[in-house]
Amino acid sequence: MDHLQSNIFIAGQRLNDLTGYSGIEALKKDIEEQEELVRTTRSDVQKAKEAYTSAIAQRSASQREVNELLQRKHAWSGQDLERFTSLYRSDHANEQAEAATQEALTTAERKAEEATAKLGASILARYHEEQIWSDKIRRMSTW
């Protein structure tokens, strides 16, 4: 029984090879991999957006506090001066963090767009190959 099943499997593979359906199966697998890549890159974009939004919020909060301190500069205590100095120093780090997360977001969006474009091209190639295969089968069946 196992021998018969293996012969039927081999015959099916040979028929798929002759008709070109093996290529379509390879394209299906490629599309599945591309779909997973698109899901992953979209997730990366979402995470990068969250990081960028967080960096902007942190820098904005810091700048807002600096502005509040500057508005009452004439009444500063020693603690206010220390806080202003600390915030002023951290502003550069916050600015760099914002720029880095913005760059990461841009890179993630570019990768997501590339993955989506490649997925579209793969789907189009599969459709084209299936049309060719269908035409071949139709011609063979009319003989």
Q: How do the strands and helices of this protein lay out in sequence?
A:
Layout: H1 2-19, H2 21-71, H3 78-142
Structure report:
With 143 residues, the chain is an all-alpha fold. Helices cover 94% and strands 0% of the residues. It is built from three helices and no strands. The chain has helices spanning 2-19, 21-71, 78-142. α2 packs antiparallel against α3 (78-142). The protein is rod-shaped, with a radius of gyration of 30 Å. It starts with a helix and ends with a helix.
Question: Which key features would you list for this structure?
Answer:
single chain; mainly alpha; 143 residues; 94% helix; rod-shaped
Number of helices: 3
**Can you tell me the overall shape?**
rod-shaped
Largest sheet: none
* Proportion of helical residues: over 70%
Q: Output the radius of gyration.
A: 30 Å
Mean pLDDT: 89
Tally of DSSP β-strands? 0
Q: List the uncertain runs.
A: none
Terminal-residue CA separation: 33 Å
Strand-residue proportion = under 5%
Order of helices and strands: HHH
